[in-house]
Structures are given as C-alpha cells and as structure tokens.
Amino acid sequence: MPHSSAASGAPRWSYLGPEGTFTEAALLTLPEAAQAEALPMASVPAALDAVRRGEADAAVVPLENSVEGSVSVTIDELATGEPLVIEREILLPISFALLVRPGTTMADIKTVSSHAHAQPQVRRWLGANLPDAEWFSSASNADAARLVQEGRYDAALAGEFAAERYGLVPLVAEIHDVEGAVTRFVQVRRPAPVSPPTGADRTSVVAFIVDDHAGALLEILQEFAVRGVNLDHIQSRPTGDGLGHYFFAIEAEGHIADARVGEALMGLRRVCAGVRFLGSYPRADGARPQVRRGTSDAEFDDAARWLDRARRGQS
User: Fold this and answer.
1) pLDDT of amino acid 8
2) Who has the most CB within 10 Å: 110, 138, 200, 292?
3) Which of 15, 16, 21 is nearest to 144 (CA)?
4) What are all long-range contacts of 235-242, with beta carbons under 8 Å and residues at least 24 apart?
5) pLDDT mean by block of 10 residues, the chain; 315 residues
6) Is the overall model pTM greater than 0.70, yes or no?
C-alpha cells in the first residue's frame, strides 16, 4: 500500500482519466479506494509522471487486454521512463455501450469515437450495425463520451457507467466482439522494497539485448527454461534508437525471492546489455506456478550446500 503524500493523510492515486474510464472503474474495485484521492490524468504518461514527481503515491494504468493485447504506451513508459515498479494487478471484465445524446437514434449516428485500444474489440459490431459511420480516436473512452456531450461526435463506445456523468444515454449496451473480454490494469509506485511472496506471484522485467544477432531471444529464454521458470508473456518493443534495437518485456511466474526466479534474473543480467526490474506482485487470478522437480527453493539450497562441501573437499 503506498504511503500518503496528501496533507489529509489519504493516499493519492493518479489514473487514466477523465472520470468514467474503465481505468477509474478498476481503481474503484480496490478496497482502499474509498479512502484515497483519485486524480484523473489526460494520458498514461501523465498518470505515471504524477507518481514520478511525487504528486501521487501510485498510479493505476491499463497494461493488457485479452482481445487486443498489450497496451504499448504503458510498457514503453515503464521500460524507458524514470523507474517505477508494479505492486498490484487488477482484472476488470470489459463490455461497451453505445452512448449518445438523448433523442439520438441509430439512423442519426454518422460519427463514433472511442479509445484506439477499444475499437478493435468492437470492430465486427460496428461493421454490422453502423457500417457507414466514421470512427475517430479519443484519448480515452470517457473522453469520447465527453466529446459526444459537447456535440463533436454522435456516439461514443465507453463503459455504460460513464453515461450519467456526461448526460448521455446508452442506446445499446453489452457490446463486444468477444464475450468475456478482460483488461488487466496495474498499480505502480516509486521503487521500494518488494512485498513478500504469496505463492501466487508474477515478476515483470525488461531486458535490453546487446545487439540484434541470431539466438538473442534464445539466450534470454534459456535463462528461464533451465531453472524451470514459466513465462506468462514476452514481447519485443523497439527502443527508438533505430532499426534492429529492441528490448523484451517479460512476465514470469513466481517472485524475485524464489531461488529459481532470482537466479534466472541474475543470468539475464549477465547476457543482456541491461535489465530493468518492474516488480514482483500477487497475481489477480491467484494462479500458483507448478514447480518442476529440481527447481524448488529447498532443492536450490541443497545444491548450494553440496557445492560448498565439494569446494572444501568434503564428500
């Protein structure tokens, strides 16, 4: 739980705003949210920078959607900006509503807006129901609702809970191309000692390769594979320094305090140009890793004791 920077003693949490975003909805699922001061920000970088500057104790931002994949701006900011670490993840089911000004009909809709990450999640619905409507990107789904309220667009695809805040009505609810879509949000803070392992944890790191060469990815994967660490996610992202320069965003099962995970990260540090630790934190789904024979903490300790005896000439 982040410390408080507010004079009142209440923690301050920045998030991707404005009011009415799915990010705010994710934040409000946290038990501590009732005592926190929520600070809506115009973008993911702005929400994270508020933490870096000390204006917020933590930020809640989207990281991954089960349909559209990773939120690149969040990954890039965590990888290359002033260091922050993930302390918690939040899973939120996602379903959209078509929000319009009162009196608007389907026939009236010529323009539709939403966040760029939302549009692919409803692409087929739009093609079937509003094939002639022009789609426009907004900074967030709630911002799209605000622009509809102002008359800029005819309709917004956003959470149904945003309708009342912007004086709109849901013309159609429960819109999604894939049923059961979920977005994963993360709460991040400034670097601090890692919380103890729970047994159902995830560890996130960013690895920068030395150069683009045959086997570069294999070298990274081997550090985890030989120690029995399963990867939940890995993707390459350009560093921005030119073609052929990449970093890998990696999510692994387990906690940095686990011997197998700690040794894998040390191995990664040896073969990479740089490694940024993004945190070890409880999994929102509670899933526990299957620890292969030979990779438990007890077995790592036993192997270390055996090596020490061998070095001292003992049987």
Assistant:
1) 56
2) 138
3) 21
4) 235/70, 235/75, 237/72, 237/75, 237/76, 237/79, 239/80, 239/208, 240/80
5) 54 93 94 91 96 97 90 94 96 95 96 91 94 93 95 96 95 92 96 95 93 81 94 88 81 97 95 94 94 92 94 88
6) yes
Degrees (nearest 5) of the Cα angle 112, 116, 118? 75
Q: Which residues pair with 90 in a beta bridge?
A: 185
